[in-house]
Write a structure and sequence with these properties.
The complex is a heterodimer of chains A (111) and B (114).
Chain A (H helix, E strand, L loop, with lengths): L3 E4 L2 E5 L4 E7 L6 E7 L5 E8 L4 E4 L2 E6 L4 E6 L8 E9 L3 E4 L3 E6 L1
Parallel strand pairs in A: 2-11
Antiparallel strand pairs in A: 1-3, 3-8, 4-5, 4-9, 6-7, 7-8, 9-10, 9-11
Chain B lengths: L3 E4 L2 E4 L5 E7 L5 E7 L5 E9 L2 E4 L6 E3 L9 E3 L8 E8 L9 E2 L3 E5 L1
Parallel strand pairs in B: 2-11
Antiparallel strand pairs in B: 1-3, 3-8, 4-5, 4-9, 5-6, 7-8, 9-10, 9-11
Classes of the chains: A mainly beta (111), B mainly beta (114).
């Protein structure tokens, strides 16, 4: 079964700094990996889906990379803003259309 | 706008009572999923359905039941056999097929014990 780990569990950064969030997964036989954002008491919002053939995906200030061989993905958020404060979840697929989730990186951007 | 609607937003259960959480989607997705989220934990899969009239147990199905009579709807019943039902429940949907398709989520239902 797929196991997903996200470290650190929580981090705080001053506004304007770049954020680097790490995700590791145990089964590297994946076609893609998905990053989500979750605000307190809310559902998940899909941020980026990286295909294994792409290795990198960008959307605005967000950039996600995927290295299957090492079982790692990284989410970069450039020039962080207070509105980026949220929990970021990484999810890797396994089985038949199933996702394994990490516990998330809880981010606080300090104004 | 297409999306997933979960209701109610908050739900309270008495001892010995069954409660049903609603999940409706108008994305024309074949696959639907139910997850449970506890504080500081990742999402855990309860049940999923790849097609109408078919569903499979996830990792923590005990004490829960589902039905999939319509493509748009995938209700979850939390039965009295679920001894620790307090959690945040999330419903998701996706297209079916390989490679795995991205999942889209509703806003969740928070269930508490009275």
């Amino acid at each position: 079964k797929q196991e997903v780990t996200q470290i650190p569990a929580a981090l705080s950064v001053p506004e304007g700094e770049n954020l680097v969030l790490n995700c590791s997964f145990t089964d590297s036989a994946i076609y893609n990996l998905q990053w989500f954002r979750q605000d307190p008491g809310k559902g998940l919002t899909s941020l980026l889906l990286i295909q294994s053939s792409q290795r990198e995906q960008t959307s605005g200030r967000l950039n996600a990379s995927l290295d299957k061989s090492s079982g790692r993905s990284t989410l970069y958020i450039a020039a962080s803003q207070p509105g980026d404060s949220a929990t970021y979840l990484c999810a890797a697929p396994y089985g038949n259309n199933r996702l394994a989730f990490g516990k998330g990186n809880q981010v606080v951007v300090i104004p | 706008d297409g999306g997933i609607t979960q209701s109610p937003k908050y739900l309270f259960r008495k001892e010995g009572q069954n409660v049903t959480l609603s999940c409706e989607q108008n994305l024309n997705h074949d696959a639907m999923y139910w997850y449970r989220q506890d504080p500081g934990q990742g999402l855990r899969l309860i049940y999923y359905s790849q097609i109408v009239n078919d569903f499979q147990k996830g990792d923590i199905a005990e004490g829960y039941s589902v039905s999939r009579e319509k493509k748009e709807s995938f209700p979850l019943t939390v039965t009295s056999a679920q001894k620790n039902p307090t959690a945040f429940y999330l419903c998701a949907s996706s297209r079916r097929g390989q490679p795995n398709q991205p999942q889209h989520f509703g806003d969740g239902t928070r269930l508490s014990i009275l």
